[in-house]
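To: structure desk
From: M.T.
Subject: fold request, one chain
Message: Could you run this one when you get a chance? Sequence is below, nothing fancy, just the single chain.
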Amino acid sequence: MTAAFMDLVDATIVNIAIPSIERNLDASFGAIQWITAGYALAFAAGLITGGRLGDIYGRKRLFLVGTAGFTLASALCGFAAGPEMLVASRLLQGAAAAMMVPQVLSIVHVTFPAHERGKVFGMFGAIIGLGAVSGPLLGALLTQWNLFGLEWRPIFLINLPVGIAGLILGRKFITESKAPKALRLDLVGVLLVTVALLMLIYPLTRGRELDWPLWGHLMMAGSLVVFGALVAYEKYKTKKDGSPLVELSLFRVKSFAAGIAVQLTFGVVMGVFFLVWTLYMQIGLGWSPLKAGLTGVPFSIAVSAAAGMSVQKLVPRFGRKVLQAGALTMATGVLLYIWEAGRYGTSIAPWQMTLPLVVMGVGMGLIVAPLTDAVLSDVPREHAGSASGLINTTGQMGNALGLGLVSVVFFGVIDEKRLQQMPAEVGTAFADAFQNALGWVVAVLAAIFLVMFALPAKPKQHMEGADAGDDSAEDAGDAGDAGEPTKEPALAG
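Reply: Done. Structure tokens follow.
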């Protein structure tokens, strides 16, 4: 639980401190994007491999290695001397999280008998809710307080005592376990997917600053070739030893293929919105980190409340319609936000943002909690572990892609040279860019709504129950591929 909380808080705490990091390190907007996207990219690329390493070498061992690496990387982030070192440290932090996070729920599967897991997952849900609310607030307070003159650095350094506590407690109380039939590693697959994503995302983040050079377009086109090579290699790997990184046969299941598309595009929405939202409030409107952090509290509470309601009461009765209602509700909230940002301009107040943020939060909560069950509904049980791993990985990839697209949909409409000559226009320029980015978010949510028609009308709520009914170490090993299917997306998000 300590590790899960640390990972979730770290995923949400950084955004609120981005403007402070930009000022303090004199970082370019491209570097700012990589501070957030780099973590998501490294996390996505290593998630499935992290789960398999735990199956092969021991989940406790990998948990402790991942936690130690995450703590060390946090220290390097906190003492980063420049933007380049911070980006590199964030990449290391994401890679360490990919070793640590998949072990959390697989250890739960092995440690607790079926009749006790409900209590554990209840605690896990509470930790997720607490992390979602406390991450932005903690980031705001630590940045605002400027402890010991360290400005933004405590948002990373706070992981040191938490990580050390996790290591001590983990070493003492966690029982070691391995999967009797663990799949082999597919490091070539990991390399291909990482290279393909880098070739796509790097030109997106750097292109605008470099006036969109030819090599950038060639790299993005080349990424499609590498993705093609990945598919070909995964087919070969399947025939060779039956342990590919990506189980391509899953895409023959219509609901799974559609769900992966939803997960990817929803990740893009999250990547775009949270970064431009922070830049809009703190740079555009000139708000303090604390004011911006407090403004987001109603959003976090709405997400948590709607998520609990959707899984327990709404989805069992209305099925797919709940997820589609979530997409439409979130789009409505975004449209409200666009209207308010245009009407009130730079004089907009936090209380005026409450309504669109609550509507958006309710919509998001209706989607994130039940999505994985809907996607896995028609997937054969023997592939549940690899399928859930692919869902989580795809969400992180979408997040990294969305962060890369910020340079196009947000910074692409800002004339930096003009703002250097007329700094008084920064607020108006950022408000206009914010509205433009949200327009793209609405378009993506509309696409998500349509793709959701391919999901099962009434998802079968069987995945967690099936796991609970079988306590074998092998099932726990399947879960080790990426964590327990119905809960992990909230953690990864």
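Reply (cont.): The chain has 21 helices and no strands. Let me know if you need anything else for the meeting.
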